[in-house]
Design a protein that fits this description.
This protein has about 375 residues and is of the alpha+beta class. Among the domains are: about 80 residues, Elongation Factor Tu (Ef-tu), domain 3; about 80 residues, Helix Hairpins; about 55 residues, conserved putative lor/sdh protein from methanococcus maripaludis s2 fold, CATH 2.40.420. It has five helices and 19 strands. The chain has a six-stranded antiparallel β-barrel. The protein has a five-stranded antiparallel sheet with strand order 14-18-17-16-15, with no helix packed on it. Strands 6-5-3-8 form a four-stranded antiparallel sheet, with no helix packed on it. The longest helix is centred in the first third of the chain and has 34 residues. About 20% of the residues are buried.
Length: about 375
C-alpha cells in the first residue's frame, strides 16, 4: 500500500516539475501558441482578376468665360467718350470707347509732311539720274563719277522714302487705337474709367479700362486626380450640378484636356464646354461634376481585405507552391469590396483573401 502511495506522489512531483520547466520557457510557449493559431486559422483563397473597378466620383469645378479680355489702351491720351457700361452686351467690332490724343494727331501730321517731302526728293533724284544717264549716251558728256553719285543719291532718297512711309503707317495705326473696339461678342463685366481720365499704355495702368467676357458659351474647369484621369477620354459624357440651382442635373461632355499632371496636386485640368445662351450660368459659379470612372487600364482587381497595409509597405499575399509570398502593390480606384492594385501580380494568381500580418512570408498555407 505504501509502495502505491509513494509511486503516486513521485508521479505528481515529476509532472509538476515538467510543467514548471516548460512554462519557464517563453519562447517555446509563444511558438506553440503561434503553431496552434495557424492550424486553427483557415485562409480563404481567391484570384486576382481583370474586372474593371469603377466608381462614381464627385469633383468640384468652376465656370469660366469662354473668352475673356482685359482692355488696356495702346496709346496715351484722354478718355473722350465711354459708349458702354457694366452689363452692356456688345458685338464684335463695336466701338466701346473713344480716346483723344492731340500729340498723336501732331505726330501724324508731321509724318505725313515728311513723307511728302521724301517723295518729292526721290522724284527729283530719279529725274536727275535719268537725265544724266540719257546724256551719258554721248561719249565724254558725263563723267562716270557724276553718274554713280546720282545713282547713289536716288537710292538714298528711295530708302528715306520707305522709312517715312513706315513711320506714317505706324502713327496711323496708333491713331486707330484711339477708337477702342470689342474684339468679340460679349458682356462688359467691369468698367474702370470715365470721360476725362488720362490713360496710358497697359504697363502704366493698375487696372484695365474694361473687362469683356464671352458668356453665351462657358468653360467648366475641373482638376481630375491622377488615379481617375487615365480612365477618361475626350468626348466622355459627364453630369454636373450647380449649388445655386438645387435639384437640377445638367449634362456635358469633356471638350479638352491639358495633357499634363500638375506637379503640386498630381491632377490634370479638364474643360467641359457648356452652352449658355439663356445666361443662367455665370462665370465664377461653382459646380459639382459627377464622373463615372470605368477603371484604370492595366489594373488588376482584388478584394479590399486581401491588401495588407503597414507603415513600411503595402502588399498582397500570393499563394505560390502552397506557401505565402509577399507581393508589393499600389492601390488604385476602389468600389465596394473590390480595389485596383498595381504590382508584380498577374491575372488568376492565387491570393489570400482574408490576409493578415501574422501570416509570415514562406509559411505553409493549407
Amino acid at each position: 500500500m505504501k509502495t502505491i502511495i509513494y509511486g503516486c506522489l513521485a508521479t505528481l512531483v515529476l509532472s509538476g516539475t515538467l510543467v514548471w520547466y516548460l512554462s519557464s520557457k517563453p519562447d517555446y510557449t509563444a511558438k506553440v501558441r503561434v503553431e496552434k493559431a495557424i492550424k486553427k486559422q483557415k485562409y480563404q483563397i481567391g484570384k486576382a482578376s481583370t474586372e474593371k473597378v469603377g466608381q462614381v466620383v464627385r469633383l468640384p469645378g468652376e465656370f469660366k468665360a469662354f473668352q475673356e479680355v482685359y482692355i488696356y489702351p495702346k496709346a496715351d491720351g484722354f478718355v473722350e467718350q465711354v459708349l458702354v457700361d457694366r452689363g452692356s452686351f456688345v458685338r464684335k467690332g463695336q466701338v466701346v470707347m473713344i480716346l483723344d490724343s492731340p500729340e498723336s494727331e501732331e505726330r501724324l501730321a508731321a509724318a505725313r509732311s515728311n513723307t511728302l517731302k521724301a517723295n518729292a526728293m526721290l522724284t527729283a533724284s530719279k529725274e536727275h539720274y535719268r537725265r544724266l544717264k540719257a546724256s551719258n549716251k554721248v561719249p565724254g558728256s558725263v563723267s562716270a563719277l557724276d553718274l554713280e553719285t546720282a545713282n547713289a543719291r536716288m537710292m538714298a532718297d528711295s530708302a528715306s522714302m520707305l522709312g517715312e512711309e513706315a513711320n506714317f503707317r505706324a502713327l496711323t495705326k496708333i491713331k486707330s487705337y484711339l477708337t477702342v473696339r470689342a474684339p468679340f461678342d460679349g458682356v462688359i463685366t467691369e468698367r474702370n474709367v470715365h470721360p476725362g481720365a488720362l490713360v496710358g499704355s497697359g504697363a502704366k495702368m493698375e487696372r484695365p479700362m474694361m473687362v469683356l467676357q464671352q458668356q453665351n458659351r462657358l468653360r467648366l474647369v475641373l482638376d481630375i486626380p491622377e488615379t481617375y484621369s487615365m480612365s477618361l477620354n475626350q468626348g466622355n459624357a459627364v453630369a454636373f450640378t450647380v449649388g445655386a440651382m438645387p435639384g437640377q442635373l445638367f449634362q456635358g461632355k469633356i471638350s479638352r484636356r491639358s495633357g499634363n499632371m500638375n506637379e503640386q496636386f498630381r491632377s490634370e485640368t479638364v474643360e467641359i464646354d457648356v452652352q449658355n445662351v439663356s445666361g443662367k450660368f455665370k462665370p465664377g459659379m461653382f459646380a459639382e461634376i459627377i464622373l463615372d470612372a470605368k477603371g484604370t487600364p492595366g489594373a488588376l482587381a482584388v478584394p479590399v481585405s486581401s491588401v495588407v497595409a503597414s507603415t513600411e509597405r503595402q502588399y498582397v499575399i500570393r499563394v505560390q507552391d502552397g506557401r505565402a509570398q509577399y507581393v508589393d502593390v499600389r492601390r488604385g480606384q476602389q468600389s465596394g469590396e473590390m480595389t485596383e492594385v498595381f504590382g508584380n501580380l498577374k491575372a488568376n494568381d492565387q491570393i489570400v483573401i482574408n490576409a493578415r500580418e501574422d501570416l509570415k512570408e514562406g509559411m505553409k498555407i493549407q
